[in-house]
Amino acid sequence: MSAEAEALRLEARSSLAGIPAAAWNALVGPDDPFLEHEFLAALEDSGVVGEGTSWVPRHVLVWRGDRLVGAVPFYLRWDSYGEYIFDWSWAQAAARSRVRYYPKLTCAVPFTPATGPRLLLHPSLRGTHRGDVRRALLRGARGLQPLGQQLDAGQVLRQQPQAQHVHQVAA
After folding, report:
1. Average pLDDT, stretch 96-105?
2. Contact in structure between 145 and 105 (CB atoms under 8 Å)
3. In the predicted model, what is the mean pLDDT of residues 4-23?
4. Stretch 14-37: mean pLDDT, rounded?
5. Cα–Cα dist 105/73, whole Å
6. Do 32 and 165 contact (CB within 8 A), yes or no?
7. Which of 2, 22, 35, 138 has the largest count of CB atoms under 10 Å?
8. Cβ(118)–Cβ(129) below 8 Å
9. More confident residue, 100 or 10
10. What is the pLDDT of residue 108?
11. Which positions ≥6 away from 92 have C-beta within 8 Å?
12. Which residues have CB under 8 Å from 102's CB, separation 6+?
């Protein structure tokens, strides 16, 4: 069976531990150091993000066989510190309206205003295979919504998209 014919496997992980750095980094563009495995793993290893913080990883991954072909860095959030969208007024308005705003699910790179893609696709993917992986990542992101609903999360956010990447999440 060819690699393209293998079924896609979708999963969410609470850490980058166990994901080979080379596999993750193969998805990251050359100008995105804040999306590299080493940066995100350093945040986890240092305790800046993870259980007990307000940035709890819920990375969405798509595998084809044993090859990582797509990923989205997602975080479950209990506040807006370390974000660069300045949504405090939204949180205050929600509180005044007695609507729960936190926790929220955020697709972002913690503590950085860097723009860029957040739907990470393997560069070898072409045509329908690229679309299949993209759709699987979006399904995985939507699959986190029950987690958010279980926690009564107020919203799902994607931060710092560049104009050329907005179409990726419009589906």
Report:
1. 83
2. yes
3. 89
4. 94
5. 11
6. no
7. 35
8. no
9. 10
10. 86
11. none
12. 77, 78, 79, 91, 153, 154
Instruction: State the average pLDDT over residues 118-141.
Output: 92
Separation between Cα atoms, residue 107 and residue 74, nearest integer Å: 4
Phi-psi category of residue 167: left, alpha or beta, with phi > 0 → left and psi -120 to 50 → alpha: alpha
Average pLDDT, rounded, for the chain: 81
Interatomic CA distance for residues 61 and 13, integer angstroms: 8
Burial of 49 (0-12, 13-18, 19+ CB in 10 A): buried
Beta bridge mates, 156: 105
d(CA 55, CA 63): 24
What is the side-by-side order of every strand in the sheet holding 8-13? 8-13, 59-64, 67-72, 120-121
156 or 144, greater pLDDT: 144
| DSSP output for 139-165 | HHHHHTHHHHHHTT---EEE----GGG
